[in-house]
Specification:
The chain is about 50% helix and about 20% strand. About 40% of the residues are buried. By secondary structure, it is of the alpha/beta class.
Length: about 350
Amino acid sequence: MNAFTSFAGIKLFTGFARVASLTRVRVAAALVIAAAWSAVPGPARAETYPSHPVTIVVPFGAGGSADVYARVLAQRLGRETGQSFVVENRPGAGAVIGTQYVAKAAPDGYTLLMMSNTQTVNETLLKRRPYNLMQDFTAVAPVNEAPLVLVVRAGLPVKSVKELIEQAKRSPGKFNYASSGTGTPYHMAGELFKSMAGINIAHIPYKSSGGARTDVLGGQVDMMFDAVSTMTELIRTGKVVALATTGKERSSVLPDTPTMAEAGVPGYTATIWLGLLAPKGTPPDVVNFLNERISRIADQPDIRSEWAQSGVTPMKMTPAQFTTFLKQDIDKWGAIVKSANITVD
């Protein structure tokens, strides 16, 4: 071996050594960066979700149906996942305050919204909403639905929906109905009835369903659409008269009361339903994780039995199906809001 060959070999070996050393440094640096990156909070993943408490925001007051069923859902989800689900009430401004809060929350699956068809009505009714339901939220899953019941005050000379329609057509404006406020499911059920039956009955809005109910019982107002679970005992004791329920099928709680479709308004349905939304951008695997768990809860025998006793039916849809359902509900109530020229102050 001559001197040149020896020198070249040494140089080549030194180059390999430097490359190997540089590679080790780069690999080590990459491992450090990867470890640091994994510790940085980011979008939730289904394999680790939930790793800390989840908040379900209810944009209505405590004690209402959304609040009650949100707490049932929170308890069962906690049992399913081993992590806490906490209900937080943020009422006000026709459900806008709580809804806006969730719209602006991090899309990580840890802040969810318990909604009702109040939000789908608001899409048309409230022109200056600080959010758009279909743009700022991701549909997670429906929870349940319940029909309403149309009741009239005791002593009103009307015993059926057909009689009511006939008398209302003979004397437009003769009858009136109460609701818990403009844009609520109770109000919209009345407006849908007016539209489909072709009648004119005056709407009297109250600040709560309790106030509306009290005046129907007292005879100051002729009728109202109300929750089946609330009205059942009053119907049985004769304090009000049930004319029809508003679901597609008869209520398990009031099996002898016809549906509105059976009673003379074909195609009529107006239920109160609840569902869960997440901020737009929530990872799909987290959305699917929640959807599957909620569907599983809805299938639990004790849940189905308890809800049936209140006339409540579980709803099951995929996120995509629930998205379609939301769009259709917005269109349905939007048409009623526009045709009836319903406005809020």
